[in-house]
Amino acid sequence: MAQSSDSPLPQLPSSSASQTSQASIASVAQPGNASACLTHTSFLGPWILDSGASDHLSGNKDLFSSITTTSDLPTVTLANGSQTVAKGIGLALPLPSLPLTSVLYTPECPFNLISISKITRTLNCSITFSDKFVTLQDRSTGKTIGIGRESQGLYHLTSDSSPAVCISTDAPLLIHNRLGHPSLSKFQKMVPRFSTLSSLPCESCQLGKHTRVSFPKRLNNRAKSPFELVHTDVWGPCRTASTLGFQYFVTFIDDYSRCTWLFLMKNRAELFSIFQKFYTEIQTQFNISIRVLRSDNAREYFSAQFTSFMSHHGILHQSSCAHTPQQNGVAERKNRHLVETARTLLLHSHVPFRFWGDAVLTACYLINRMPSSVLHDQIPHSLLFPDQPLSFLPPRVFGCTCFVHILTPGQDKLSAKAMKCLFLGYSRLQKGYRCYSLETHRYFISADVTFFEDSPFFSTTSESLPVSEVLPIPIVSPPEAMPPRPLQVYHRRPRIVAPLPFPEAPADSLPIPSASPAPALPSPNDLPIAVRKSTHEALSHPGWRQAMVDEMAALHSNGTWDLLFYPLVDRLKARLVAKGYTQVYGSDYGDTFSPVAKIASVRLLLSMAAMCSWPLYQLDIKNAFLHGDLAEEVYMEQPPGFVAQGESGLVCKLRRSLYGLQQSPRAWFSRFSSVVQEFGMLRNQRLGETQVFLGIEIAQSSSGVVLSQRKYALDILEETGMLDCKPVDTPMDPNVKLVPGQGEPLGDPGRYRRLVGKLNYLTITRPDISFLTPGQGVLYENRGHTQVVGYTDADWAGSPTDRRSTSGYCVFIGGNLISWKSKKQDVVARSSAEAEYRAMALATCELIWLRHRLQELRFGKDEQMKLICDNQAALHIASNPVFHERTKHIEVDCHFIREKIASGCVATSFVNSNDQLADIFTKSLRGPRIKYICNKLGAYDVYAPA
User: CA 922 to CA 240: how far, in whole Å?
Assistant: First the structure.
């Protein structure tokens, strides 16, 4: 607006120096960004940052802190061409942190101009312009010393500590949305030019904050110093988990400043660790200790750790009386304010509820920077941090569309320079906005963000599913105690789904005479019991729809899953799956059987590796099912999105098996077995030395091979909440007999069945899973022989309900435990000899099967196997060809065992009951007995110190 020649302007005189006289200098006007000012009505407005002015200029004498009039002041040329002589030069303070020296006083100029070129030299600052704001920053300290706002093409300087830094001439409702939907009174205090507003027609505030009439206020006895009293309360659980899995939050409110700290939690057990961090932060940042903590009677505030910590640091813990939340009213009211604001933020921009964690953090950030009536309209943040600006970033509308600048190194020059994101708040520790990408499921903290505040990211709350496919899920509430006096309780009326009529018959169908004795049969799709092949089809029928509602309600009440957002993906994997459920047996496929490895075979191979010192490696067959050859003609539609160009009418005739086909497992095994027989090479991926196989942890050394399921056992303990339990030497009292019908029914039978199944799988490496530690495992060593020895035993009439016996056996190869089993017999044994003999038959079958495996593998010597039993009567029956009334009903077992003994395949021998190793598989034993047998079986705690 005004520019001088190369000669310097006179400077403001100091107390110790006189003013130096200089010649009058003519100024030439240059077009700058303030040239348009003269086209507006003249008024004394705020300071304007002008890139075309060579000197600071003001026509308002009241803005000068000091002013001097000399005879050699320069001539100023204005943008309209007129010239005038400056009437004085002095010091002005637009901001406390922004002193302007050598400001020319020109009454003819109706504006206050700050020369950008001069202020960057005199104050050593940098100036950053954006489309709406300008920021002045000290180069040496990095501190923001001034903030400006663009209005009608000009950048007006505003206060850097004012909460109204985002405000110029925008509509009041937009500013209200940016500031997080404050109340009308707070809004008018933050933006005084709207003090005449009588109301704010914000529908989101009505939906999110509508309350009943409040009770009379009480006296305000506020603390006299920071952290003299801290209020706290836990909110939750939220039915919908946040994007990062949080379901609770805890607040800590300083009673003096009412400044709030908010922390998200996944469960209430995290409270103590969070309070420790909060206490340490207060001590470090303020050099103050918390004196009194006030809370309700929640259990987590009275844990042993929490109580010990409070006592150790001398913190008084005040708690409210039972059922008296008014005594913790500050925290209760603050949580209500936070939740109301967060709910309003979500509703206003139609943001899904899974982002409630970000909404409540944003609400806390904004509330801390709003005037509080309790503080006589002071701002909590300013009370606690008087030397800090309220915010380094202008507020934005929560949930709006934003674009984050991409700073990926080496990205393609033609790729997009920004990523479309959802604005979710502000960073607590970084000077940036918190944005979320629904494409990559990642959070971004960035200062290079462009906002479309009038464009919510989500247009509606139900755009993810059509209305017809959104099922009502009933909320199952826990039973509550009956109140002492009658209460009128209103229950939400359940949503009733009207039954849908069957589809009408087509117009061209033949009518059925009314006198016909047999009514027309509906099509299979119209039958109530017809199996629907898609969710859409099922929703079209009232019976299936109600069944789905009932199923979902059961899943929710059982806590089957937690609603979370997508986690970070380690690796993307796609697989084309054929719709095998549309195949017809006999036409599209025939036999489907495919063998699966028996776990005893796996243990046998690992034992062989230990005895022969073979290294163990793992291989992963790439796309295993795709190597199988199909014997049938199978056609498949082209995969959606991958239709060959110009061949949209063609279908795929499969030559190889594909995932999803009924015959794929059998086709793959046939192909695999043929290649292995030819000793060909397979395309595979080497996974290194074997460490984990089907959940079994495998460790190999020069001493042998150890099998363990420690992680699997710890997972079971964690699932059942028994990680801190202590092992016992008598896992089950031998004198206790479990009888059906006794005791209380289980509340969750499904959970019991799952645990039984997991314990069954744990027996892969644990002959006895009820003793010692989770690190228990089986050790395989090279003992110098390959003899096969089996132990067999039976608990005669051990079941108190049906008096059936339990068979048990274990088989050693080369001294290593390979196979074991515990099974209840199918029929009642009339004597202990009969029970023992049936157990011998079961063990003999396992011996024969293992012998065949060894012969196929050509491993070891073809020597006689031993079968050891502790019942003399059973051994006599096996050795003597005698049949009478005691044995005729087990003749098949007799013939089978005698045949193997006669052929020399198996030899029987007697063992004392104290040395019977199979005893552990038939009945409950006591601690010393269990420990003795486990030692003989080769079961060790592989993690115990040597």
Answer: 48
pLDDT band of 293, cuts 50, 70, 90: very high
Residue 907 near residue 867 (C-beta atoms within 8 A): yes
Residue whose structure tokens are 């008087």: 386
For residue range 159-198, list pLDDT tens digits in order. 544 443 444 446 788 888 888 899 888 888 777 667 777 7
CB 743 within 8 A of CB 665: no
Residue 776 confidence (pLDDT) above 70: no
The answer to which of 48-52, 74-78, 92-96, 500-504 has the lowest mean pLDDT is 500-504
For the segment 653-675, the average pLDDT, to the nearest whole number, is 76
**Phi, psi (rounded to 5 degrees) for 733:** -65, 120
3-state DSSP helix/strand/coil percent for the chain, to nearest 5?
A: 30, 20, 50
Mean pLDDT of the chain: 76
- Look at residue 524 in the predicted model and tell me its pLDDT: 42
Residue extents of the structural domains in the chain: 35-160, 223-384, 400-456, 580-692, 776-941
Most confident range, picked from 84-88, 161-165, 682-686: 84-88
Q: Name residue 155's amino acid.
A: Y
d(CA 487, CA 484): 9
Q: What is the 3-state secondary structure (H, E, C) of 575-605?
A: CCCCCHHHCCECCCECCCCCCCCCHHHHHHH
Indicate the DSSP class of residue 565.
-
pLDDT of 598 reads 79
For residue 237, the 8-state DSSP code is -
pLDDT greater than 90 at residue 87: no
Quote the pLDDT of residue 699: 78
**CATH code that applies to domain 223-384:** 3.30.420.10
CA torsion through residues 343, 345, 350, 356, sign: negative
How many C-alpha atoms does 367 have within 13 Å on its Cβ side? 27
The DSSP result for 606-670, as a single string, is: HHHHHHHT---EEEEETTGGGGPBPSS--EEEPPTT-PPTT-TT-EEE-SB--TT-TTHHHHHHH
**Domain 35-160, CATH:** 2.40.70
What CATH class has 776-941?
alpha beta
DSSP string, 776-807: EEEEE---S---EEEEEEEETT--TTT---EE
Q: How far is CA 90 from CA 10, 26, 66, 754, 927, in A?
A: 10, 19, 5, 85, 96
User: 935 or 283: which carries more pLDDT confidence?
Assistant: 283
Q: 92: burial class by Cβ within 10 Å (0-12, 13-18, 19+)?
A: buried
Residue entry with tokens 């959970």:
751
Q: What is the 3-state secondary structure (H, E, C) of 132-146?
A: CEEEEEECCCCCEEE
Q: Please give the DSSP secondary-structure letter assigned to residue 494.
A: P
Strands (E), 165-258: 229-235, 248-254
278, 252 contact by CB (below 8 A) = yes
| Closest residue by Cα to residue 496 from 418, 549, 419, 535 | 549
Distance CA 182, CA 189 (A): 11
Of residues 734 and 458, more confidence is placed in 458
Among 42, 39, 38, 30, CA closest to 2: 30
Average pLDDT over residues 775-793: 82
Res 562: pLDDT? 56
> How many degrees, rounded to 5, is the angle at CA 942 between CA 940 and CA 946?
100
Q: What is the CATH architecture of 400-456?
A: Roll (2.30)
Reported as a pLDDT band with limits 50, 70 and 90, residue 212 is low
- Report the side by side order of strands in the sheet with 433-437: 442-446, 433-437, 418-426, 400-405, 449-456
* Same CATH fold assignment for domains 35-160 and 400-456: no
For residue 317, the Cα-to-chain-centroid distance in whole angstroms is 33
DSSP 349: T
Q: Is 434 helix (H, G, I), strand (E, B) or coil?
A: strand
Per-residue pLDDT, 26:
33
